[in-house]
Amino acid sequence: MQKKLLNENLFKLIFKYGVPSILTMWIFSLYTIVDGIFIGKFLGAKSLAAVNIVMPYVNFSFAIGIMVAVGSSTMIAIQLGSGEDKKALKSYSTSLQLFMVFSSILSLIGIIFPEKVVRILGANDIILEEATTYLFYLSFFTLFYMLSYGFESFVRIEGSPNYSLLCILGGAIMNIVLDYFLIVILDMGIKGAAIATGAAQMTTALMLGYYLLFKAKKLRYTFTKFNLKTVGTILYNGSSEFLTEMATGVVIMAFNINIMAIIGNDGISAFSVISYISTLVTMTMIGFSQGLQPIISFNYGAQSNKRVLKILKIGTVTVFSLGIFFFFIINMFANELVSIFIKENKELFILTKEAVIYYSFTYILMGINIIISSYFTAVEDAFISSILSVLRGLIFINILLFLLPGIFNTKGIWLSAPVNELIMLVVSSIFFIKSGYKKIVE
């Protein structure tokens, strides 16, 4: 595997790692999207709004999982690339123990204080009960939700991206089957949706865990005492991805608060549809960038900088092309996409369609910003990557959410995201030219 990362044709290598990673993220997206379809069709707009209120908490859990997975996998790839196999094993073992600690804390919070959490997230009395129920039952599966992403990253490092894809596909199929059985057949409502999603994540985590336990050749778990330096490096290296995903949760919460104040529950339902569509697009961009990371990290660790620069060029052109593709597809088939989730409520349908079209401009530039941030993580410059994540996901978007609705009313809510990506493209480009480019040309 190591020789291939250094010598194999880059287009072939990027295809080998990037495509399975994208497909993996698409299947991850199915967990959310399938829930949305079943909830929208069989439970209604109020339940859609309730699930969307809980999403920031889910994003927070996923953010911690990404932070540990990306932070440790970046370390492991660089350590393997430089021949430090023993250090790589310690990093791997430490990351597994971090998953256990963080997931236990989050599970307890969601199980013991579900109503308080959803109140903080913006739930009103109309959707409080369903939002509380969804969070309570989903919290029992937090460990598997985090491990499924972490294990997937480690299996890719082992050189088996196709197996990880198969495992996640198995979980997605399980989710569809359980959604139908628990929501439609047993009429378990929002509780059934939460259990179906959780059980599907558990299926994926167990399948991936089996590979790492019995089939892995490079990564073996042994109990390791927490070393503050190792833990700190893992969390620091993954901090950008943590902030990116965390910012997604904060943005959803900010959108929910603004929408609830200006439009009401129907607006939350409309935004939930945007969230389901955006999940697929965002996961495509993140999946591709995650597929590139081990290639960039390994070549950077081996000081093969010309290949790193070429990988970046290919990656940037690819994500920009994907962004254009998604923009046109969403605008051409807006009616069909919205009707998957909403049909009977005509006013809500019109509101949602308008929101989806305005919001779709976001996807054109999103991928380039994600690639640049991901590059800084891959070369262990988490500080700049974190700055970009904070600017993109916390500062600029919240300023725009404050300003634009006052100028354009409801349209200002939906336009804040694409304007944010445009501003960030300028900022990210400046950071790359001033700092990132120097790392691979000097």
From TrEMBL:
The chain crosses the membrane at residues 21-40, 60-80, 92-114, 134-151, 163-186, 192-213, 242-263, 269-290, 311-334, 356-378, 390-408, 414-433. Signal peptide: none annotated. The keyword Ion transport does not apply. It is found in: Cell membrane. CDD domains: MATE_MepA_like. NCBIfam families: matE (TIGR00797). GO terms for molecular function: antiporter activity; xenobiotic transmembrane transporter activity. The keyword Cell membrane applies. It comes from the Bacteria. GO terms for cellular component: plasma membrane. Pfam families: MatE (PF01554). GO terms for biological process: response to antibiotic. This is Multidrug export protein MepA. It is a multi-pass membrane protein. It comes from Cetobacterium somerae ATCC BAA-474. InterPro entries: MATE_fam (IPR002528), MATE_MepA-like (IPR045070), MATE_MepA_subfamily (IPR051327), MdtK-like (IPR048279). Keywords: Antibiotic resistance, Cell membrane, Membrane, Transmembrane, Transmembrane helix, Transport. Belongs to the multi antimicrobial extrusion (MATE) (TC 2.A.66.1) family. MepA subfamily. PANTHER family: MULTIDRUG EXPORT PROTEIN MEPA, SPORULATION PROTEIN YKVU.
